[in-house]
Amino acid sequence: MKRLGTVSIFLLACVISTISAPHIIAQTGAQTGSIEFVARATPSSGIEEPVRGFPFYLLSKSFREISKEAEATYPKPDMDAFIDTLDSREYSKPLKAWMKKNHRVRLSGEDFVNKLDVSDIMDVPEFFAAYTERMTGDQTVTFPTAKYKPAEKAKDPAKYDRLVAEYHDAVRRFLTANPKSTDGMDLNLEEVDPSNKWDQIVAKNQPEFHRSLLELAQTKYLVARAETDLQGQGFLRGIPPGNYWLTTLEVAASIGDAHLRWDVPITVRAGSVATVALTNINATHPSGISP
């Protein structure tokens, strides 16, 4: 009887275990969530296309913030210190002050010209010279003419200074009335543009910084990874509840002339499916423009 009782107890335990197992499994599954996403890009042609076979990373911290963390270990070169090293015989104090104030050394491009206001052009000798040279050669407008000559400075300093002031006032009035006249003036700044020197300094620092950044993202903060299918869809299962970022790290997905990166926040809840559509609207557009 004792032996039969032991066997009965054992069988009963097995039955209870079998009945309870699905409940335990379901309970475990309910403690995690999942993510379903689709990535699509729209080039200038206007035809939306799926981003196929592209890796996406789920991080516990935004890639932007991880970049800041990496910079603390491998800080970028000091732009102000670089500006201080520029030869004072070639770069005026007002120009150096402008570059420091705007944290910019690239003196070209539409964004640079649009950044300039009337005071910048009138107060920075290099900008004033580039603008007046540009406008003097434009035969389609009536631009103020300078009535002074360098030789007159020693002969009659007071008259020279008065004529210079009158010319500057006339240029200021013309510039104020014609703000778009600055277009193309950056072509006259090529000889003093120090951005190539700066780019070389930055380039020396980049390899080690990027290695550290990617290593930090893919070790300390990586939660999961998925690759999109032919429809641009991706799936991540068994994700603990919490706040995450779905990112492409530094790699841009290229569809035609659209080059997009993503670093999108997403919240996962237990037993739920979080969905997100990755498009041009919530993408980061790599500009490729250095300061």
Specify the CATH homologous superfamily of the largest domain.
Immunoglobulins
CATH topology of the largest domain: Immunoglobulin-like
Query: Total domains, how many?
Result: 2
Task: Report helical residue fraction.
Answer: 40-55%
What is the CATH C level class of the largest domain, in words?
Mainly Beta
Shape: elongated
What proportion strand? 15-25%
- Which value, in Å, is the CA radius of gyration? 32 Å
Integer average pLDDT = 87
Counting DSSP H or I runs of 4 or more residues, the number of helices is: 10
Described by strand count, sense and barrel closure, the largest sheet is: 4 strands, mixed
The N- to C-terminal Cα distance equals: 89 Å
What is the β-strand count? 10
> What structural class do the secondary elements suggest?
alpha+beta
The ordered H/E elements are: HEEEHHHHHHHHHEEEEEEE
